[in-house]
Design brief:
Layout: E1 2-9, E2 19-26, E3 31-35, H1 42-49, E4 57-62, E5 65-66, H2 75-79, E6 82-85, H3 97-106, H4 112-125, H5 141-153, E7 159-163, H6 171-186, E8 190-195, H7 198-202, E9 207-212, E10 215-220, H8 222-229, H9 251-280
Parallel strand pairs: 3-8, 3-9, 6-7, 7-8
Antiparallel strand pairs: 1-2, 1-4, 4-5, 9-10
Helix pairs in contact: 3-4, 3-5, 4-5, 6-9
């Protein structure tokens, strides 16, 4: 469980708070979209959750760990619980796809035997089997994002934090990436995805937290979100970057839905088999 209690954050020299009096709970195994325009506080929200920043006031607890009190030497161990997917991929250019994914396991001392088994498996989930020996510059934007997602999955992370994972890919690939995150969530992984693509969010019936000027202005499912934002128009206090034009066409997402649903059962079976293997070996180091 992730709990923000009376959390505010103001950076030194900043005239206003980046976040103001945030109170919310994200349960284990939940899927949450965090939506907001540029400057709404999304990045600060994630940085606090990853313990890159500390709140000015309030407390943040992740799985019984108080991030305002955690010792500095324990932060790397805490972050092993997290799988981070960045918009700009952050792949290592002189490493192959295989080694980019394996790197996340090697830095925590995982044995090579497990790496040789686990990396091909997560690459297969992402449809990247044939790209294992390629370098990032040889991949499309969508392929690079899938490598970043595979790296986040390498250590069986309990929580996936995806920061604008669809920001640099086309609508079809955007849907596929979110669908992959949905499947991971169905297997028990907590997923928190930050995005400004409101139309994409509407395709999935999940909890949506809307941030504006550092405050939570809405927190709930699709019906609650629509009711809370029905009054908003491009002239409102929320910037145009947040508002999706009515003519925007996201029909490409729907075209992939049936095909991806057919694949879901196969992937779920593979996930269960892999989990059985890991459990029998005592888990990933």
């Amino acid at each position: 469980m992730i709990e923000f209690k009376n959390v505010s954050k103001k950076y030194d020299g900043a005239p206003v708070h980046a976040l103001k009096d945030i109170n919310l709970t994200i349960d284990k195994g939940e899927f949450v979209f965090v939506v907001g325009s540029s400057g709404a506080g999304k990045s600060t929200f994630l940085k606090l959750m990853m313990r890159e920043e500390v709140p000015s006031t309030g407390s943040i607890v992740v799985d019984d760990i108080d991030l305002t009190k955690i010792k500095k030497r324990d932060i790397p161990k805490f972050r092993r619980r997290l799988g981070i997917v960045f918009q700009d991929f952050r792949l290592i250019p002189n490493m192959t796809v295989f080694d980019n994914v394996a790197f996340a396991m090697r830095v925590i001392g995982t044995k090579e035997k497990k790496i040789r088994r686990r990396v091909p498996y997560v690459l297969s989930l992402m449809g990247l089997n044939e790209k294992a020996r390629n370098y990032p510059k040889e991949l499309s934007g969508g392929e690079q994002q899938r490598v970043a997602l595979a790296r986040a999955l390498a250590n069986n992370a309990e929580i996936i934090i995806a920061d604008e994972p669809t920001g640099n890919v086309d609508p079809q690939m955007s849907y596929e990436i979110v669908d992959l995150l949905m499947r991971l969530n169905e297997a028990g992984t907590t997923v928190i995805m930050v995005t400004h693509e409101h139309s994409l969010v509407r395709c999935f019936d999940k909890r949506v937290i809307i941030l504006d000027k550092g405050s939570v202005v809405s927190d709930g499912g699709a019906l609650i979100r629509e009711a809370a934002t029905s009054h908003i128009n491009p002239a409102s206090e929320i910037s145009n970057e947040y508002i999706v034009p009515p003519e925007e066409d996201y029909s490409a997402y729907a075209e992939y839905e049936q095909e991806l649903q057919q694949e879901a059962e196969t992937v779920e079976v593979a996930v269960n088999v892999e989990d059985d293997i890991i459990m029998s070996e005592g888990g990933v180091n």
